[in-house]
Amino acid sequence: MQNTYAAGTMPTPALWLGASGAVPFVALAVASLTVDSALQALVIVALGFYGAVILSFLGGVQWGLAISDREAQSASFTRLGLSVVPSLVAWLALLLPALAGLPLLAVAFITAYVADRRAGQRGFAPAWYPRLRLPLTLVVVASLLAASVSVAWSV
Predict the structure, then answer these.
(1) Of 54, 62, 77, 132, which has fewest CB within 10 angstroms of its CB?
(2) What is the pLDDT at residue 124?
């Protein structure tokens, strides 16, 4: 039986789960722009926490890709060490005021995408994975930046 995932065909569950994971980003960003100021603070906190959780998940994906290499060529201290950076950045973003934390998350999501793309180019990730991550990253970054603008407007 041929492994269609290795050939580059994106698994349908990955597409659906990835897209559904982007929904809270969009919904919270829209809410941050439309709700009254009393509720906006809660929406911004929810978005920051959700972003931190998902960014940590992406670091875990890199860890998993590194340790899944049967020859252990990619399970280097550098790759494993870099895979924990998203969690640390996410934690820092939660400690910062939203006006700094949300843009930090946006930059971190872009950086995580670059790492995912490089993993795909080096054969450490399935060919479909960077193709999945690009539109999701664009949605996430746009959502985080839109919410940042809403915070700036309310200051």
Answers:
(1) 77
(2) 87
